[in-house]
Design goal:
This protein is α/β, with parallel strands linked by helices. The chain has helices spanning about 35-40, 45-50, 70-75, 105-115, 145-155, 160-175, 190-205, 210-215, 235-245, 285-310, 315-320, 320-335, 345-360, 365-370, 375-390, 395-410, 425-435, 440-450, 450-455, 460-485; strands spanning about 30-35, 60-65, 80-85, 90-95, 100-105, 120-125, 135, 140, 180-185, 225, 250-255, 260-265, 280. The protein folds into two domains: about 10-280, NAD(P)-binding Rossmann-like Domain (Rossmann fold, 3-Layer(aba) Sandwich); about 285-485, N-(1-d-carboxylethyl)-l-norvaline Dehydrogenase, domain 2 (Orthogonal Bundle). A hairpin with a 2-residue loop joins strand 3 and strand 4. Helix 6 (about 160-175) packs across helix 7 (about 190-205) and helix 10 (about 285-310) runs antiparallel to helix 12 (about 320-335). The structure holds D-mannonic acid. The site of D-mannonic acid has 10 residues, from helix 10 and helix 14.
Length: about 475
């Protein structure tokens, strides 16, 4: 089978949408750090829709760690297929907005050169929560993070996202080129201001003048991104190859729903995103909080509970009434009262979410969402817990969600088989389990003492501690399904 590429693009069948602009005329305007499935199903698609109107916004992607995306896309001239799975079957589309993919370890100077190039006006990021090298509980740069220490020691050859941004901004400043806009597309709370603080702090540690420049002169708009994008499977590849009649080494599978709310602050301009479905607003925070607390806030507990109960995907998990009720209850009774959008909109968003979770076309693995819990819990669950505590209101679903994370982090499932716990704090999580055995109160106290996750306040809150330990006891004695049913 021939490979998808510029040369074979006209062999794509008419049933598959493809770029309707001249790819040869597209120029790079965006550098994206962290090319992965999510960005390729979200931002790259919005940009693809803009390129017919304005060809100056092509994307140069960069992988900060592995070469696998570059290895898949380079022989395809950056082209790949998006398979959108809805109730009515699958729609395919070839996306052309990614012009090139660089690999940091091999192409560091080219990447920094592209970031410093005057044609680059926006640097976007999807490096996941842990990619910012910050303390998740406070949102501050983790100054003792090994990558940050290494980048401060050799700042002109950085490896971390903050290090790369600061070195590229320094080069622009030295060359009299105005700074690019930094657009983080990760699920962090107040993501624009948070990343601004992290990056400005790193710059300050390099040189206080540079720190003031980053804090004062660089725009970091906030944004809410939303689309469910499971990891691509071999079955997805085979299905896409058959639909295309060409081989695509790394297509991306997603759902029909897509949302992008963006704070409209781009000093050097931006693609006409509002004409392709993005919502350009003055303040993103209410939408961001809704998304983090409802979607991600129920996704993570469903992932831990579902995994423990033996379900491979979210769709399988919410097909069981008790688990669906759990997600419904967490959102309706505990998260929605902490949000500041009209209630009717929030309830409609919740109902849509429950449908999206149930999409049988998406094999979104519980194990995938369970990853990096230490980085996700604060903005997904713990902010909501704090608001509930302050309001004097109960939080049983949230406490079960936190307990389920602890039970998962212990590293053994309900049949005593090992769990592959992926988390930057995995060793510490394991050590808590080794020290506390199966005693729920000791386990809860051990996990709650991890300050980077729970801060100083939550471990001291007796009601929270007791609720979490109680649920953890049920999870250990009777399992996840019984714990959910017992609510
Ligand atoms: C998920 C998110 O993997 C995860 O932690 O909760 O990636 C989620 O699918 C997206 O935020 C949806 O927009």
């Amino acid at each position: 089978m021939q490979r998808l590429s510029n040369a074979t693009l006209d062999q794509v069948p008419a049933s598959v949408a493809r770029p309707r602009y001249d790819r040869a005329a597209v120029r790079p305007g965006i550098v994206h750090l962290g090319v992965g499935a999510f960005q390729r199903a979200h931002q790259a698609v919005y940009v693809d829709d803009c390129l017919a109107g304005d060809p100056t916004w092509g994307i140069v992607g960069a992988s900060l760690r592995r070469p696998d995306t570059r290895d898949a896309l380079a022989p395809q001239d950056g082209l790949y297929t998006l398979a959108v799975k809805g109730g009515q079957g699958t729609d395919h589309r070839v996306v052309g907005s990614i012009l090139d993919v660089l690999v940091l370890g091999e192409d560091r100077e080219r990447l920094l050169g592209q970031m410093a190039d005057p044609g680059t006006r926006i640097v976007t990021l999807t490096v996941t929560e842990k990619g910012y090298c910050h303390d998740p509980a406070t949102g501050e740069l983790a100054e003792d993070h090994p990558d940050i220490r290494a980048d401060l020691a050799a700042p002109e050859a950085p490896s971390s996202a903050p290090g790369l941004l600061v070195e590229a901004l320094r080069r622009r400043r030295a060359g009299g080129i105005p700074p690019f806009t930094v657009l983080t597309c990760d699920n962090l709370p107040a993501n624009g201001p948070t990343v601004r603080r992290i990056v400005a702090r790193f710059a300050h540690l390099r040189d206080p003048g540079l720190g003031r420049f980053v804090a004062g002169e660089v725009a970091f708009p906030a944004t809410m991104v939303d689309r469910i994008v499971p990891a691509t499977t071999e079955a997805d590849r085979a299905e896409v190859d058959a639909a295309l009649g060409l081989a695509d080494a790394w297509p991306v599978v997603t759902e029909p729903f897509s949302q992008w709310v963006v704070e409209d602050r781009f000093p050097l301009g931006r693609p006409p995103l509002e004409s392709v479905g993005a919502e350009m607003v003055g303040a993103v925070e209410p939408y961001e909080r809704m998304k983090l607390r409802l979607l991600n806030g129920s996704h993570s507990p469903l992932a831990y509970l579902g995994y423990l109960a033996g379900f491979e995907t979210i769709a399988e998990t919410v097909a069981v009434p008790a688990f669906r009720r759990f997600a419904h209850g967490l959102m309706t009774d505990e998260a929605i009262p902490t949000l500041r959008l009209p209630e009717a909109d929030l309830l409609a968003y919740r109902d849509r979410l429950l449908e999206r979770f149930a999409n049988p076309g998406l094999r979104h693995r519980t194990w995938q969402i369970a990853m990096d819990g230490s980085q996700k819990l604060p903005q997904r669950l713990l902010g909501t817990v704090r608001d509930r505590i302050e309001a004097g209101a109960p939080f049983p679903h949230l406490a079960l969600g936190v307990a389920a994370w602890m039970r998962y982090a212990m590293g053994k499932d309900e049949k005593d088989r090992p769990i592959d716990v992926r988390d930057p704090l995995a060793e510490r999580l394991r050590a808590v389990a080794d020290g506390a055995g199966r005693d729920p109160a000791r386990l809860a106290a051990g996990y709650l003492s991890i300050n980077e996750i729970f801060g100083p306040d939550l471990p001291r809150h007796e009601g929270f501690k007791a609720a979490v330990a109680g649920h953890l006891g049920t999870l250990l004695e009777r399992g996840a399904k019984a714990a959910v049913e017992a609510l």
